[in-house]
Amino acid sequence: MRIPMGNAGNAIAAPQEQVRVSPQAAAQVGDALARTGAVGMQVASQALDQQRREQEKADEELRRIQSVRAVATTKNGLYTLEDSISRGVLDGSISRADAGKMWDEQSAKIVQDSTMDLDPRYQESVRAGLLDTQFTLGSRVRDSVTKRTQQEFAGELVATREALQRDAANDRATANANWAQILDSQGPLAGYTPQQIAADKQRFRESTAETEAYGIVNGAKTSMQALAEAEKRINGDAFADLDPQRRAVLNNTIAGARASLEQKAVMAAQRAEIAAQRRERQAASAFDAISKLSLEGKLISPEYAAQVARQTAGTPYAEALPALLQEAQQGTAFAMQPLDVQRAMRDAVAVKGNKEGWTPALVKRFDRMDAGVKAAEREYADDPLRAALDRGVIAELAPLDMSSIDGITKSVSDRLTQARQVETRVSGAVSPFTADEARQVGTVINAMPVKQRADAIAALSGAIGTRAATALAGQISKNDRALGIAFGYGTTRTTADRYTAELVLDGQQVIADGRVKIDTAKETGIKAQIAQRIAGTYSDQNTENAVKDAAYLMYASLANGRAPGFTSGSDIETAISLATGGIVERKGGKIPLPPGWKEQQFDQALRAYPAASIAGQTVDGKVYVNGAAVPVEEFVQRLPDATLRAAGGRGKYAVTAGSGVVTNGQGRPVIIDLMNPTAPAPSARPQARGLLEPGNIDLNARPVVRNKDGSISTVRSMSFEEDGREVLIPTVSDDGRVLSEEDAIALYRRTGRHLGVFDTPSNATAYAKRLHEDQAKQYGGRNAR
What we know:
Oligomer: single chain
Largest sheet: 4 strands, antiparallel
């Protein structure tokens, strides 16, 4: 079908007819255009006016903001200037006289400079608005000047007060009057209020009265009559200004001085009476008097002293008396006594109370003693050197170079001497380090690799000796168990020539790093096996636990590197052997052998053990087995068949006797040291007749003094009577000076150091002679004195 297309597809553009405009219409169009142009011009002009007005408004706002900023900036500058000038005035860097002028000039300049660029319309108003700030801050500057003036006057008043206080020693009334006058005139200038001035006058009068009164009392302490006169004066009208509390203190001081004089008189009377009576009554009477003096401060009549002496004769009072008398006469406290003496004194009071009946005073005395003993036991256990220092046993701690192990070993000698001195108070090994220093030693060593740690332990142990090293190990163990155990092995080496301590430290590191897997079963694990083998070997449980831990750590070191899960029985035995020295069954019990020893060698050493090594531990040449005295020679013969128990140190053993151990006459265990069976040095103290208290001076560390005749003096000595006892003291000081008798006695009073206390002068002289002979032998017969 054909679809019709129309003409759409064939349309062609064709010209159209032109539109014609009449002249009248053209004129109308022109008028319209003219009117439109006029309206446009008017609109444009209005827009320009609006823009100009907005610009002027913006400019005005800008000038206002500038003036506000100028005010803020100027105030900040003024505050800064005021702070600077005020601080300068107060610290003296700016003169008080110049401060006001400086403020006026510089504040004006700040205002001028900060506002000079402002619009003139705002400038004056801004400056006027800043006047209040200038005035306020200027007042602060003036306040600082006033404060500085007051400070200077106050400083002058302080200096004047001190000068007048010194003048008051000569004329108290005049000094008081002068000070009152000065305060009235200068106090207000220093800023003092009337109330403060009045209070200061009162304090000055009280202070000068107190100073004079103390001088009067202190000058009267040697005379009963003078004390009575002093008491009357300080309680009279002349000292009405004295503060009531200060007056009470002075009255108590007078009472104490009077009591002291009375006590001295009583003691003098006692010495005269005791000289004609039995020794037991003399000791008991002196003990009671000095005990009351040192512990209670109470007076005791001669009649009561005699009564107590009769009642307590033969009690532990007599045994504790020598040390107490010595310490009391030196003015030292109960706490300075050796621990065993403190315990004996305390127990003696308990015996008295239980036998004769308790009184409130006796209960109080016992409680004080018991608290003192417990405190001493606790503090000596925690930090022996510090406890001894606090109690006056040693005057000061010798210095140590703690910067390195080398520094420690080179500087520890004097500390070792002090540690040995402290051992006389605690009857046990004492480390030459305080607790803090021991921790520092541990820190220094722990900063090293394992092998170097072991080398450092060996070096330090060698420098201080086995006894001190054992004590140091105990200190370190409180904070670092493994390091403390390692220290206990000191210089001991394995058969592979390694320090045993290295195995302990290496085992600790191996376990910490997880480099070895150890069977930890409670009943069957490695630790349990080690514990079963060692159990019962040592008399001291703490020592046994330490050895078990040591063996366990050594096992870890030995087992390091083996296949996982591998257990070597030989490693367990090796570790136990290294830790204990080897355990053997002997006389029905287990004992550890000295490191590297065989049982045969052990038996030979017992058979050959020198009697002198045991005699040096006794005070009377006898040991005590279940309380029965046995001569040392006889005891040594029985030694091979004795039952021994490990006594802590390597190769050291106590001898069992029933449920206890063999002791010396002082109740201390007798120790068999198989590794060091040495006889006492020639300078060891000889046994002496009538010895009441052993000396406390190290005879091996005495200075040598060359006399004009070529002889030498080391233990040159003298003795003097003190409360019925003869005290033997050196007349050569620690720094090598030969002392007069007066200086030697003064040194003894100050330090408490002596060569022995005896019952009679003849026994003291005999002991001094024997001591001189022994020293002569020690120094090669060089005419020692």
